[in-house]
Design brief:
This protein is mainly α and about 250 residues long. Helix content is about 75%, strand content about 0%. Helix 4 packs across helix 5 (about 75-90) and helix 9 runs parallel beside helix 14.
């Protein structure tokens, strides 16, 4: 059901007062996205700066929102807010030169392995090829873990111009019978890939994306540290992209 602001927007698009109300109604969405994107990370940019970037994305989404398309504003705004937050993180570039070089080397090893073997390497194979520990590999991969959701979406959705993040793929409302059928097919592919993950990684995906738990909550349930949950999350996302690419 549309919110009062969305209903008013449909009657009077472009009015600054209505745009402001849409933004104010959805400010909690910005904080939620910042918390989820940065879960387990220690970015060099402050939380306030990330929230400011996300809020700017929210304002831009409010100006571009067209309620006549039948899409909820939260769904429409999600990708734009998250994109603004991720861009802010990338621009801050918290990696030292040596860490950046290691991450670049890992990407090169992944490309070389895929070229030779026709698939993405496992974390274990990547560690062996890079002559690093698995913990070291996961440490560097975690710096760009916000990219994995986009990678998952590209694998599941294909080369469409507009793509929703993984969270929306899991929970978004379909608008037509065809939309519902397509979403069910994507969900089936994703569900099958999740089922092929190791049990602990499967737990991580289910708790984070299906049950909407935060890293701290997951750490308490699993009886491990929050940093360990972040490491498992990185591994799970990496392996999930591998499972989907193998189909």
């Amino acid at each position: 059901m549309a919110t009062p602001a969305e209903t008013a927007y449909g009657k009077a698009q472009g009015r600054e007062g209505v745009i402001k109300e849409l933004v104010m109604d959805h400010l909690p969405l910005v904080r939620s996205i910042v918390s989820r994107v940065c879960g387990g990370l220690r970015p060099s940019v402050s939380e306030e700066d990330l929230i400011s970037a996300g809020t700017l994305g929210l304002v831009q989404a409010a100006h571009r929102y067209d309620s006549s398309q039948g899409t909820k504003f939260a769904t429409f705004a999600y990708a734009r807010v998250k994109g603004a937050v991720v861009d802010c993180l990338r621009q801050s570039d918290p990696l030292a030169k040596s860490a950046r070089e290691q991450l670049t080397a890992l990407r090169r090893h992944i490309q070389e392995f895929r070229k030779s073997n026709g698939r993405k390497p496992s974390v274990e194979e990547l560690a062996a090829q890079a002559d690093m520990s698995e913990e070291g590999v996961l440490k560097y991969l975690s710096y760009e873990k916000w990219d994995y959701v986009g990678s998952l979406q590209r694998v599941v959705d294909g080369p469409h111009e507009q793509q929703n993040p993984l969270e929306e793929l899991l929970v978004s409302d379909a608008e037509t019978p065809l939309d519902e059928l397509e979403r069910q097919e994507r969900m089936e592919r994703l569900s099958q890939a999740v089922q092929r993950l190791p049990e602990r990684e499967k737990q991580i995906i289910v708790m984070y994306y299906y049950e909407d738990l935060y890293m701290a909550e997951m750490a308490e349930i699993l009886g491990v540290s929050e940093s360990r949950v972040s490491q498992l999350h990185t591994r799970a996302l990496y392996n999930l992209t591998r499972k989907l690419e193998e189909e």
